[in-house]
Amino acid sequence: MADEDGNDENEMDETGENGEPAQNGEPGQTGKGDTSDAGDFTPPVKAGGNDMIYTGTGAGAFRMIDQPIEDELRDSYLVYAMSVIVSRALPDVRDGLKPSQRRILVAMNDLNLTPGAKRVKCAKISGDTSGNYHPHGESVIYPTLVRMAQEWNMRRLLIDKQGNFGSIAGLPPAAMRYTEARLSPVAAAMLEDIKLDTVDYTPTYDEVRTEPTVLPSKFPNLLINGSGGIAVGMATSIPPHNPTEVCDAVIALVENPDLTVEDLFEIVPGPDFPTGGVICGRAGIRRGYKTGRSTILVRGKCEIEEKKGSRSRILIREIPYQQSRDGVVKKIAELVNGDRIKGISGIRDESDLKEPVRIVIELKRDADPEVVLNQLYQFSPLQSTISMIFLALVDGKPRELTLKEMLMEFIRHRVTVIRRRTQFLLARARRRKHTVEGLLLALANIDEIIKAIRESRTQPEAKQRLMGIQCPASMMERALGDIGFKQFQSERGVADSYPLTSVQTDEILRMRLSQLVGLEQEKLTDEHAALLAEIIDYLDILANQSRIYGIIKEDLEDMKRRFGDARRTRISMEELGNIDLEDLITEETMVVSISHQGYIKRTPSSVYNTQRRGGKGLKGAKSDDEDPIEHLFVASTHAYLLFLTTAGKVRWQKVYDLPQLARDAKGRAIVNLLNLEKDEKIAECLAVRDFDQEGYYVAMATRKGLVKKTPLEQYSRPKKGGIIALKLRDDDELVDAAVVGPGDEVILVTAGGMAIRFRESDSRPMGRNTSGVKGIGLVGDDEVVGMVVADPNATLLTVCENGYGKRTPFGPNALGEDEEASEEETSSSARYRTQKRGGKGLRDIRTSERNGKVIGIARVNNDDEIFMMTSKGKIQRIEASDISVIGRNTQGVRIMNVDDGDSVIAVVRVPAEEESEETEQIVTAPSTPTTQSVGSDEEANNEIDSDVEIDDADGNADADDASDDE
């Protein structure tokens, strides 16, 4: 070990022949240099063979211990940690107080600051506490005193305050030279009987006086006022409880110690915070009571008020425990200014003395108050998680306790206090009885007593003479009475006469002459009888545990009567985990678009105003020839999007998680939202709200005419990397998907204008990792462009790339014709009759040069609206009723004007029930002339081979029906 100069200490270790320090100077000197000046530095010398190193000379000498620093750090830190645990941070399970709190109350008791006394300055209290008991400074003591006087922190105050002690708003208290305090009635009840030897005392830090290690505390303070503290390696967090409920629980446990935690849970349903609030669910409370460790969710008390003009506001009347009012307001303002919460127009703090918490939150006209309230719960201190850690000192050691164990420890403490108090009172009563007996004997034999005193020259001589007087048993019996004499004989034994004791003679010598009057003799006789009764009662208490339990119950009934009140915190039966994000999102209809290069966005459907048929539409996206829009659909913000990819996988995303952008924005790269593999692209999207629908399937159709259905529930468990949805064959891709149920029929439509309708039951359910079976037989290079579920009450909208299209009734399902349908509606040219799966189908629309190829289909009703988008990003929104309903095998009509070089690439239905409730302005655009250069609407109704059904030999493709289940 080297010294500060880097020299090895062994070089200074010079000893004599016998191992003693060198004698050529003072001990520890090496003999080098001048040693005459005692103030010079003396290098340390190690005594031979010892770890002790001596340094210095004379009065300045001291010693050092040669010890590895890691050992010293470990040992010293352990001492510090135990000091923090036992003497600072954790409460005692018996009185629920930390040492600092207990010392403040004891110091105030020393100052006689009872509830009826005049209050004194807190500076005086802090000074006495610091000087007499707690040597940690007044700046540490005063905040502890202040907290015990704050009604928003303590369920029952221990300090009766006067002055500014802070506020629930978070304002600090005034300096201790301005504030005054005294003990509250609760604190007085906790200190009661402290001078009756009910608790142990220990010397204070300076050993000048002693202090109690615990208070007698007939008030169950730990559970009622709670406690919190961070020690070394452990922490405690005991929430406050209702005084009435806790007292009832202790009484019930005294009456029946076999009660379980579940039984006590019915009496104490949960914490009761001084600030009120709402506890969400009972599971966390039950777990905390049973194990001693849990968490609970606490919300402020809020009300939604409806105002005139479809406006609402939220009133906050209570805040969670240990949250400041100003802190809540400030955080909400930050959330509003940061656009985290968008439905709030203003915040006002209307709190006053009558109503300490009243925060008014004004909402915007279109804001959903339930959504805003859920956002406040999620992001602001209006909802907080409170720990339940029932850690306290039991017999001086930290221990986690259940609810029952905590109450049993309090009962055990009260039994000890009552027993010690009774023993103290018994001893005091016996001493007083002994003294009174001497006085009664003196009065009964007063002449001899006076004679002995008069014959004595000094007090010691008088005492000796009095002690030599023998009192006959008969005299004793007359003086004490029958009961008193029997008790006397039981204590002193049976004898003919009894001498006076030293204690009795001292009291006789101090007796005044006025006590010789007859009235005083009667008082002594009555006092002796009362003392006898007290002694008998005390002995009975000590002999019968039931008497002690009865006293505990009486004390608790008194505490409940004096300090009990109604519950402030409401306990909700609704169990809340983390708030579902959907509760924070307003449900509204969104238009979702995905471009060819994989850019996605969502836009509220309300931004697209309805136009007349034939309009040119509004700019819906910044797109170009190199990145046209491929997918366009409408979905609720709360719906799941199933992204089916070219790799045959499906991935999940909530609509509200998609980027919401302006109508003409390009969008965000979808690869930033989904974990797509290399060269993997989105093939189709499907919006689903509920996966748990028995008998429902996800039906899929590929470009090569294959179809497959898989139970919907198989897609209900999202995975980060996605799951297999469809096994695609070479040169094939997914083109459409839909949810089908029992009795449904589907229609496939090809780019060449062919359509086939068949029952969903024709395709058996398959697993996810399969290819499917043939749905339609394709001719040449024809390919499937869409699939819909047939609806007898709806129409099939078919749209071609040049903006032409039509609506045609589906016609009834194969289960039966509509008896009320007209002959025209049931004719083969006016509907799509059901065929067998795998056939080539019927003619749907003529794909002439005017029309171009079919690009998409949709199932629509008269009150629906239609979105159409071109490859250059133009979107038109029209009413479905503006599109003529005509026969199946027809030309169609112009729906949208398409510029040269542009083409329609997508069509989507906007269901009427998903429309915005607000009235939208209809933008009128120039209508397309009824007469077109390529033919009129009348020509569009000319049917071509209307009754020709195109099938293969047997109407099926049995050779291709084999599935590819893996």
TrEMBL record:
Its recorded reaction(s) are: ATP-dependent breakage, passage and rejoining of double-stranded DNA
One GO BP on record is: DNA topological change
- One Pfam family, short name please? DNA_gyraseA_C
What InterPro entries does the annotation carry? Answer: GyrA/parC_rep, Gyrase/topoIV_suA_C, Topo_IIA-like_dom_sf, Topo_IIA_A/C_ab, Topo_IIA_A_a_sf, Topo_IIA_dom_A, Type_II_DNA_Topoisomerases
Q: Which domain of life is it from?
A: Bacteria
Segments of skewed composition (Acidic residues): 1-17, 816-826, 936-966
Q: Which Gene3D superfamilies match?
A: 3.30.1360.40, DNA gyrase/topoisomerase IV, subunit A, C-terminal, Topoisomerase II, domain 5, Topoisomerase, domain 3
Q: Name one GO cellular component term.
A: DNA topoisomerase type II (double strand cut, ATP-hydrolyzing) complex
The Gene Ontology terms for molecular function here are:
ATP binding; DNA binding; DNA topoisomerase type II (double strand cut, ATP-hydrolyzing) activity
EC primary class:
isomerase
What EC identifiers does the entry list? 5.6.2.2
| Coiled-coil ranges per UniProt | none
* Keyword Cell membrane annotated: no
Keyword line: ATP-binding, Cytoplasm, DNA-binding, Isomerase, Nucleotide-binding, Topoisomerase
What residue stretches are annotated with the Topo IIA-type catalytic domain?
A: 90-584
Residue ranges of region Disordered?
1-50, 808-844, 912-966
Comp. bias (Polar residues): 921-935
Catalytic residues, per the record, are: 178 (o-(5'-phospho-dna)-tyrosine intermediate)
UniProt record similarity statement: Belongs to the type II topoisomerase GyrA/ParC subunit family.
Annotated protein name in UniProt: DNA topoisomerase (ATP-hydrolyzing)
What gene is it encoded by? gyrA_1
